[in-house]
Design brief:
By secondary structure, the chain is mainly β. The protein has no helices and 24 strands. The protein folds into two domains: 109 residues, Beta Complex (Metal Binding Protein, Guanine Nucleotide Exchange Factor, Chain A), CATH 2.170.150.40; 113 residues, Domain of unknown function (DUF427) (Metal Binding Protein, Guanine Nucleotide Exchange Factor, Chain A, Beta Complex). The strands form five sheets. A seven-stranded antiparallel β-sheet has the order 1-4-5-9-8-7-6, with no helix packed on it. A seven-stranded antiparallel β-sheet has the order 12-15-16-22-21-20-17, with no helix packed on it. A four-stranded antiparallel β-sheet has the order 3-2-10-11, with no helix packed on it. The protein starts with 17 loop residues before the first strand and ends in a 9-residue tail after the last strand.
Length: 258
């Protein structure tokens, strides 16, 4: 099933492209600051989005331990390191760029995202991966009516919506909860995170007379400031429901995860 937060590949920045990050970047482990820098670099190891590469000199409590293992990553050759912050030890957490990588990356280290407990741009937390400077999110009020059906059952019908446009993803239509038929939906424990919108608060599934449809709707009760208009509203997967906009059935979007 598609993840609402999976991003389509973008060819705006080619693999191996490097450019400066105009923001303060910090990472923490166990409540301690592993690194703190205003000199981070974006590096594209694959087309969809960049990673942060941090000057080794800007480690604070973080210590790198060479594992004496070199691999060819997307942007070039890098040497694998363990990251130690106080008593916390994260093996294979860091890659220090070597000859063969773009020259601007020399003397910097790229961390495995999940190896850090938390990441911050300035004082705002970042989830999943760095936000691409070439991606944006726009949440706009719309007078377009929306009807959602699955297996012939109407799950939602709204006279208006919030349209959310996110680079590389299908347009999403967020509806006020009063326009959703909650008697038809089953709550799910699924949680997903998005670097542009934040962490979902809820997912819902639907059991029709002919099939079970897992996690077809979601909500962000506390989205990022970039998408604050969708707070508390509900969206359905274009890929898995019959979505009518102003009475016209939209073609089902291709599955971003396929």
């Amino acid at each position: 099933m598609a993840d609402e937060n999976v991003q389509y590949p973008s060819l705006i920045a080619p693999v191996g492209h490097v450019e400066p990050v105009p923001r303060r970047i910090r990472g923490t482990i166990g409540g301690r600051v592993a690194f703190d820098t205003r000199r981070a670099l974006y590096v594209w190891e694959w087309p969809a989005y960049p990673q942060f590469s941090i000057p080794v000199e800007d480690l604070v409590d973080g210590v790198l331990i060479d594992e004496e293992h070199t691999e060819l990553l997307g942007a070039g050759s890098a040497r694998r390191h363990t990251l130690q912050v106080g008593s916390e030890v994260r093996a294979g957490a860091a890659w220090v760029w070597e000859d063969g990588a773009p020259e601007r990356l020399h003397g910097t280290v790229r961390f495995e995202w999940e190896a850090l407990d938390s990441w911050f741009e300035e004082d705002e937390p970042v989830f999943v991966h760095p936000r691409s400077p070439y991606s944006r999110v726009d949440a706009l009020r719309s007078s377009s009516s929306v009807r959602v059906e699955v297996d012939g059952v109407v799950l939602a019908e709204a006279p208006n919506c919030i349209t959310l446009f996110e680079t590389g993803l299908p347009t999403r239509y967020y509806l006020d909860r009063m326009h959703v038929d909650w008697t038809r939906l089953r709550h799910s424990d699924t949680v997903t995170r998005c670097p542009y919108k934040g962490t979902t608060s809820s997912y819902w599934s639907f059991d029709s007379e002919v099939a079970t449809h897992e996690d077809i709707a979601w909500a962000y009760d506390f989205p990022t400031i970039h998408a604050n208009r969708i707070a508390g509203t509900v969206a359905f997967y274009n890929e898995h429901v019959d979505l009518y906009i102003d009475g016209t059935l939209l073609p089902r979007s291709s599955d971003p995860a396929a």
